[in-house]
Amino acid sequence: MLYSSPAITAYVFFVVTLVGLCMGSFLNCLAWRSAHGESVLKGRSHCDSCGHELGFRDLIPVVSWLSTRGRCRYCGERVSVRNPVTELVCAAAFVSILLVWNISYEAIELMAFACVLLVLSLTDIDSYVIPNGCIVAAVAVRLLYLAWVHFFVGFDVSGLLVQCLISAAGVGGAILLVVLLMDKALGRESMGFGDVKLLAVAAFYFGWRECLLLIIVACLIGLVVAAVGQRHGEPAGSVADAGARVIPWGPSIAAACWFVMLFGTPIMLWYIGIF
Ligand SMILES: [Zn+2]
């Protein structure tokens, strides 16, 4: 359907890009407010420095930031580059999911999951916490999708649901065991429990096979992030160190989830084809 005519293709990509940019802006605000103890729903958007209420022309994703060269229009204080970056990342996630999954229920499910991953990445960067609310939201999205496919599309998902639950329990249990053993061996916390829960959620989405691929990718991204962090003078030790406190591992897991959303199925088919 997406490619039935060039006009429809262009229109859908345009709309999805726009929705992705606006969603990124909203999620950035959501993560910032929840990290700073502000109400998520109440109060208009305002400048973090001077508190001036933001108008329409201050709230256009990316464009507003570029037009004021990354400064507040009212007080001239710097506005974090994180705002436009989050908006662009969200748009890129939406567009890439649309490219791979076309117009489908899976695409909508994965876009919603991507939103949750974006929020938990931001809060993990800010406060080294993956909120339980994000874990619950991710599970709810998956269950809603399965329920929709089961009751409205008419595809029996009971077998798939059992597989997903076993994958989540298996991956979550195995990693929890490894973490507890590592904690004991090192005599300190090796990895946050939020990361364990997030990996169990990933297995709930992608199944244990693709989740193994996801863990490898997350470790590789974590290593690169730790190495870059070290070069920039931030103390970082092993991946376990990076995962524990110095550099949050949540964003790496989230990026690996994005990778598996796009390339998990073809890589698995290729891998199975080898044998
Ligand atoms: Zn200001």
Which ligands occur here? zinc ion
Please report the total strand number as a whole number: 0
Instruction: Please identify the oligomeric state.
Output: single chain
Return the average pLDDT rounded to an integer. 90
Helix fraction by DSSP (H/I, runs of at least 4): over 70%
Instruction: Give the strand content.
Output: under 5%
Radius of gyration: 20 Å
What separation lies between the terminal Cα atoms? Answer: 35 Å
Number of domains: 2
Low-confidence stretches: 236-245
Structural class: mainly alpha
Structural shape: globular
Biggest β-sheet, characterized?
A: none
Spell the H/E element sequence: HHHHHHHHH
**Total helical segments:** 9
Q: How would you portray this structure in words?
A:
The chain is mostly helical. The chain folds into 2 domains: 1-100, no CATH class; 104-275, no CATH class. Helix content is 73%, strand content 0%. α3 (82-101) runs antiparallel to α4. The protein is globular and about 60 Å long. The chain starts with 5 loop residues before the first helix and ends with a helix. The structure holds zinc ion. Zinc ion binds next to loops.
Essential attributes:
275 residues; mainly alpha; 9 helices; 73% helix; 0% strand; binds zinc ion
Q: Topology, pairings included?
A:
Layout: H1 6-35, H2 63-67, H3 82-101, H4 105-127, H5 132-153, H6 158-186, H7 193-231, H8 239-246, H9 250-274
This protein binds zinc ion (ZN).
Zinc ion is lined by residues 47, 49-50, 52, 72, 74-75, 77.
